[in-house]
Structure formats: C-alpha cells, structure tokens
C-alpha cells in the first residue's frame, strides 16, 4: 500500500506530548519515524497514567508507528552518532530547553552544515524571540495565559483548565502541518529549513481566530465562563429522566425552528427574546428552563432519537468508559487495539485523516526503550555488533 510520506525519514528527539504527537501523525502517513530515548528511558516514560506493570500508557498512545533507539547525547561517541543520524534524516523534531539545545548541538546552522536538506521542527513554550523566550511552559500554563482557563468553568466559580491538553495536541498538529509545508518547499529548492512551533503561538492563534481577542479589542468585553453553554447562540447540557446528560445546540434559524417543533413550542417562534442567535444567547436562561423540563421528562435515548430525526445537533455527554465504546469512533477506526507483551488489547489513536488514494495506517505498536537499536544502528549506520555492544557497555546507547 502506498502512503503519502513513504520514504520520509524522521528523528523524534521530543519528550511529552506536542512533538511526540507531531511525529506520530507523520508516522501514520508512512514516514519512518525513530524515537530517540535516553539510555534507560526518557522522563516521559515515567509519567502517569500507568498500566498494571508500571507502563506509562501515554507513551504507547503517542509513539505507535515509530521505531525506538537509545542515545546518550552527552557522550562524545553519542555526539558523533548524532551527526551521522542527522545526515540520514529528512526531519528532526526536538523540544529541548535553550541550554539543552546548546549542549546537544541542536542549532539549526550546525544541522544544516551536516545536511542542507534537513528540516528542523523546534518545539517550545514561547519560541526563540520575545520577552518570554527563556521561560519554560506546559499546556496548563499557556491555557491560562491566553485566556482559555479564565473563560472555562461556571459563572461565579474559579477558572478551570480544559480536561485534556488541547494546546499540546493542537501544537503537535501544527508541527505536522509545518513539516509537510517544509517538505513541499524543499521539492523546489532542494534545501531544508527550521520551523519554530510553539505552544504560545498556537494558542494565541486559536483564541484570536475564535474571536476571543477581537471581542475585547472591539467591544471592551472579556468573555466570561458559560459552564456548558456556547457563546453567541443557545446551547446547553441537561440531565434526562434516566440521569444521563445530553447536549443540545441550536445554532442558526433553521435548527431553532425545527427544535421548537420537536419540543412542541412553536409559539416561541415570534417571541422577540428569541428572534436570532444573539438574542437567544442573551436570553439563554429562559430557554434553559423550558428545555430542562422537556428533557427531564424523557429518557436520553428517546431525546436523542427525536432530535437526530429532526436534524438537531445533539449528543450524550459521556464518560471515558462510554467513549471507548462509541459506535461512530469504532466505525471510523479511530481506536485501534494492539497487544503488548504485558498489556493486551491496548487502544491506540487511529488515523484521523482519511485519504482516498494514500490512506494512513496503524502499522506497529510503540517501541520499548531501545527496542530497535541493532536494527537502526546496524542497518542504517552500519555499526558492527561488536561496536554496538561496546556502546551499550559504555552507556552511549
């Protein structure tokens, strides 16, 4: 089967989420991605959640479709091996701090001198310029700094972080986008380049595109937390008769009209409080009271069937257990189960873009620490088994 990135060679030196997810997305589409761990395992292999034998489960989720080697970048021999790997690679992914970049030699000009075609994806919190360039950051910090935390939660309550690392993961997607653009540029020029991919840049783009910053700059109003409500239209979540939570959204006049027909309240069509999306948003509490009564008298299954039949956007608010069994997720192969030696039937993220001619594929499980040392160092760099055994004794790999 032909995949769109077949033949593209990637070195993944990143730790934690953003860079690792970027590399996984490239691997899904056929790239030969090699994850480089410290000897004994990098820090992110010791982060929860853990499996029954102490396995870091997120490592399995983020590193499927990759091969895995170990390399000590502090060792003189390790630095030489690093240079040889750079000569092989098309793309290098890293998220080291500025002092670590200097120590390990991740300066783009140095990499370019080794391989003029190499593309460097440099992940960081804030980038190499600006007053925050030397600061460290994680997803939660940046969510707060761009206002997501402030706008999340319930009115009158404290700010709340989004339940998953949405900035890390979306920055990883941005990185995969950057990699493919740089590959396209290289087709015509023959040279690579460096792309800085930062949590802050990505998050600032998201909140500005969503209207959060423009709203303040133009109107002077700061977006306030809405609980489960949505900004600019009427939407909310309600508990059904059988104690299930359902979510309903009525963005647009056509959907609102159909919704009133389902709940038997066509009399509200001419109510000036509900004449358009903005007025319905302003008067959302009045709508909430009406809809809560309708929902509370019915089971979730009946509610969802009626609304789906009328083409009203709606869905059930699910727990992790329920999500893992969601029929649409499984129909689209967005959870792929593979076995590990000590962990059977592990769910991996499926390929989220469905190409008609060059589909991606879940080909291999995530590597154990150094699982492919001999395969890569012997097969690609042509080290002998004796040399590799010595490197291992000396702590180089």
Task: Describe this entry's structure for a reader.
This protein has 397 residues and is α/β, with parallel strands linked by helices. 40% of the residues lie in helices and 14% in strands. It has helices spanning 18-28, 57-63, 76-88, 98-104, 108-114, 139-145, 166-189, 199-209, 212-219, 253-263, 277-282, 284-296, 300-309, 320-323, 327-331, 373-379, 385-393; strands spanning 9-12, 32-37, 66-70, 91-94, 119-124, 194-198, 235-239, 245-249, 314-316, 335-340, 343-349. The strands form three sheets. The protein has a six-stranded parallel sheet, sandwiched between helices. A three-stranded antiparallel sheet has the order 7-8-9, with helices on one face. A two-stranded antiparallel ribbon has the order 10-11. It is elongated and about 85 Å long. The two termini are 33 Å apart. The model has no long low-confidence stretch (mean pLDDT 95).
